[in-house]
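Case study.
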Amino acid sequence: MEICDLTAAELGRKIKSGEIGVREAAEAFLDRTDKTDKTVHAYLTIDRKSVEKRADEVQEKIRSGEYDSPLAGVPAAVKDNICTRGLKTTCASRILENFVPTYSAEAVSRLENAGTVILGKTNMDEFAMGSTTETSAFGPTRNPWDTDHVPGGSSGGSCAAVSSGECAYALGSDTGGSIREPSSYCGVTGIKPTYGTVSRYGLIAYGSSLDQIGPIAKTVEDCAAVLDIISSHDPKDSTSTERSYGFSKSLSDDVRGLKIGIPGDYFTEGLDPEVAKAVTDAVDVLKQKGADVEKFDLGYVKYAIPAYYTIADAEASSNLERFDGIKYGYRTKDCEGLHQLYKKSRSEGFGEEVKRRIMLGSFVLSSGYYDAYYLKALKVKALIRKAWDRAFEKYDVVAAPAAPSTAPKIGESLSDPMKMYLSDIYTVSVNLAGLPGLAVPCGQDSKGLPVGIQFIGNCFGEDKILRAGYAFQKEYPYRAPHLTEKEAR
Amino acid sequence: MGKNAIDDETIDYVGILAKLELSPAEKEKAKKDMEQMLDYIDEMNELDTSGVEPMVHIFQTNNVFREDVVTNGDGHDDMLKNAPEVKDGAYKVPRTFAE
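After joint prediction, the assembly is written out as follows.
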């Protein structure tokens, strides 16, 4: 088996045993990327020289015993809204086109301290605002399963990189589904942890009360291993929580007695019948393995997206005020006075979707509209949270689709933002309630595009969703797309 | 037809709040987009939320205090490397006050 086709855990074991060298592993992924990424366009930045140098350093530190993590030496990619010291971090925006962070995100530092070789930075929707990776200022990423289709978003570059074997695993971020929806579209595994589990220090903020960093990989086992490394209580993030860790320990093929709830009100009009069938079949697999499965009504389903966009855009309008053309980023070439410098730099630097969200966010926070929109959304959020609380009184895990369809064609979503927003229907309420959600590949539609199932847990209930995902993956192992020679050229 | 109508005055005001300068064509598009989104968001009004406490944070948040000491070293020069314009080791901005 080729290096790029191994899981991160397998590769880690082979590196530890000395069967595969760290440099050899890194070069294998870089060579694969040379072949496939002209078409897939998962990466925005790769610094080959630094990668090779870092690989040699990591090899040495594995030999000396300084790095002893199960994933030491395994090459990974990082979404381009997560700061990497000395390596360009653009948020796929013109406004940050030349931004080089002076510090690394806590999640990145933790990976580096565990001996990770970071290959490069991955494409995304601009400032993580989008569900297809088409709002990137640097061109879309293509789905490795069919390059006429989007990879999903906003972590589309990370998911496509994993799927095409251009990295062993990747970091993404998830504000309203940005790890789970593209994982589903690309046929890979991704988890958004409980809010507060992974430090947001160094994650360029979009909706701070919703943002979480999480791993994307071939398997549930890999995701758990990465989560073991990047989770921590970080004093640098005031919303970071102290909790139990050790996610890999919860992996077990035994789901006997696991109580799984299926929200009947998710399986309605708007859900692609092929997706519904794949997800239902996947739940049946777990039922046959001894899980107790029951249907229930979650409630408030149609209100999640309006509440989400109100809250996320409000927070975005505030968070993105820092981009003013003074301290970093793009500055307009021609302006008179400070105020015009702000306005012109921002108007020229931000893309259309980002401006749309900043405008809506500014509006819902403005005096006269604050109560009717922003405060209303916070109340709806409270109701949604209560609905989930009721569900978790009865169930250990809620199983649902990760997205209402498989990956749409490139160009189909951009013309109709409202339609794009609806693709988040099964993911946003998980962020509003702070819950963990795991997307696992569970089938393919008649076009051959992957379908993902989402396992949702109560706060700090990662152990149960990882168990459900792990047990399912035992029966439906990871499969990679076959990028044809023609497509890969 | 939707029930929200955004007039020129409102979109100009939002432009000031958002610190964005829109061309006339962008302005028309922004009005339409915002009307459509607000019509959609208005669906929340179907829910009776009287007596519901607005929820900002999922978990109880507390202030996090620490001693006011520098722990991350001096990043002055590195930070200035990202600045669009620099003068004498500081950020340069256009003249703000009239002479």
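Observations recorded in class. Residues 8-46 of chain B form a domain with the Histone, subunit A fold (CATH 1.10.20). The radius of gyration of chain B is 23 Å. We will return to this complex in the next lecture.
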